[in-house]
Amino acid sequence: MRALGLDVGTKTIGVALSDELGWTAQGLTTLRREEDEEDKDFEAIANLVKEHGVDTIVIGLPKNMNGSIGPSGERSQLFADTLSNHVSCTIKMWDERLTTVAAERMLISADVSRKKRKQVIDKMAAVMILQGYLDHIG
C-alpha cells in the first residue's frame, strides 16, 4: 500500500508519500497553485499517483475546534470530489486540526529559520496528516 498525503491550501499543496509498506510518511514536494488553473493541480497529483504507484490519497480536512466543518473544510471536500475525477485510487479525508501548528512548532524546535520554515511548512503538515492516517489504520 502506498499513500499520498495532501495539505491543500489556497496557494500551495503540501505533498507527502508513504513508504511501500504504509508505515511512515516522508515529505515529497510542495506544489504551487495558480488561481483559476486548478486543472494543473489535478494533473500534477495524477502524475505523482502514477509515478509512485499510489493507491490511496489522504487529504487533510480542516475542521473547526468544535468538530464542525467551515468554509476551508468545504473547499477541501470539493477539491477531493473533483480530484476523484482525475485519479482512480481511493481518496480519504483526514482531520487535520492543528497539524500546521504542530509542524511549525516542530520546525521551530529544530531551529529552522523563518524563511526555510515558510518553504517546508505545507510539506511537513502533509507528513503529519498522512502519518496520522497511517498510524490509525496500522
UniProtKB/TrEMBL annotation:
Its EC number is 3.1.-.-. Keywords: Cytoplasm, Hydrolase, Nuclease, Ribosome biogenesis. InterPro entries: RNaseH-like_sf, YqgF, YqgF/RNaseH-like_dom, YqgF/RNaseH-like_dom_sf. Its main location: cytoplasm. CDD domains: YqgF. Residues 1-103 form the YqgF/RNase H-like domain. It comes from the Bacteria. HAMAP family: Nuclease_YqgF. This is Putative pre-16S rRNA nuclease. It comes from Halalkalibacter alkaliphilus.
